[in-house]
Specification:
This protein is mainly β. The chain has one helix spanning 100-114; strands spanning 7-13, 16-22, 48-57, 60-68, 77-84. Strands 1-2-3-4-5 form a five-stranded antiparallel beta sheet, with no helix packed on it. β4 (60-68) and β5 form a beta hairpin. The mean pLDDT is 80.
Length: 131
Amino acid sequence: MQQLAGIARGHWDGDTLVVTTTNFTSKTNFRGSPQSTRQDIFASETMRVVERFRLSGPDTIDYRFTVEDPSVWTRPWSGEAPFRRFEGPIYEYGCHEGNYGLANILRAARVQEAAGQVADAPVPFNRFAPK
């Protein structure tokens, strides 16, 4: 079975959570949305992504990933980034290109601040919340 986002499976390797995602489709747009003006890169059915999450300190997770797809790239490529603990709500990442509502949200907050009011915090969207 194949899916646009692939199928992820995880396991522990010592103190590291390893997540391997396979079973992508040739319709998986690896770089950008279909409306993008840049050249899109589509994965093949052989793409494989391996992610590693390791607690490196009381407030830090080391995140590393490797992408391989011999039908698309000449060799695998990798990246890494630290994830740091922070206080506050976590918002789902979403691209804001073409999100014209964002400008109005920010404009309304600036008007509230200019009037000496505390700007309302946006209500986070939670797609997993019960309806």
